[in-house]
Model the fold of this input.
Amino acid sequence: MADNTKSRHLPGDPKEHHIVPYKFHIGIWVGLIILTIMTVLVSVMGISLVAFSVITAMIIASTKAVVVANYFMHLKYENKLITWLMGVTIFLFIVFIAFTAFDYLTR
Amino acid sequence: MENFVLANSGHNRDDEASKFGMWLFLFTELLLFGGLFLVYTIYRYLNSEAFLHASYELDVVMGTVNTVVLLTSSLTVALSITALQKGNIKLTQGLLVATILFALTFLVIKYFEWSAKFEHGLFPGMDHYDHLIPAEKMFFFLYFFMTGLHGLHVIVGGVLLGFVMWDIKKKKTTPDNFVYLENGGLYWHLVDIIWIFLFPLFYLIH
Done:
């Protein structure tokens, strides 16, 4: 019985919610601001290698997006099914990009 | 006994299903913007020189300020959920007001940014725009389309959070039933995530 209540969420049971402390959120925000400053600096300091700059910018942006999703959107504390579906969505997007790129790169 | 509700009596709620529905909607939003990012990526690859040249027209300072504004608004929404969970309704409302004010700040800055582009005649159909080479036209077309669509999402997100505030006032959203606030917050964070990608792609990649 005890096992059953653990795995099945009771509707409206407030105890199933994870309360994220204020300080933790503020810490996440500080991290995001630092990452933003980093991207701006990389750009303004004018690293002339275009490809390098694109990749750096995208890695930093993706890191920020993952942090926002995991902590601000509480993805880390939600049902894992949502994370899996997020993975499927990102996979689909990569397929779109890859197939279109194959087409354009081979013309 | 408080939580005892007959199945299918019409009075039970399922917060997890509500949030799940919101996430499914957010995935479709990601693919909507994903399609535009795809167009941007391909055209940028084909015309990197022109895109580079055109991107210098954008104001990095305004873009950076707007990024900080949106990140901070994401923080205030996230904090408002914690505040409501802890039963501090006044703080929840204050944080939501702050979020909506940040949304307005973002839009005001965007207005000044777009106005400057209008003055330079860079909006599709304007004088300067018509004399650009096709690839630079594409850059400004995508810039206006994508930041415009994102701006619409900022407006929708602000209105949604306004509805949530109304619900809190009417005591429909309470420390025991806050799934509307969570879903409003999820939408708001999505708006933030899209900007996280728009900002470096348009303003920073020099």
User: Anything to note?
Assistant: The radius of gyration of chain A is 20 Å. Chain A has two domains: 20-73, 79-107.
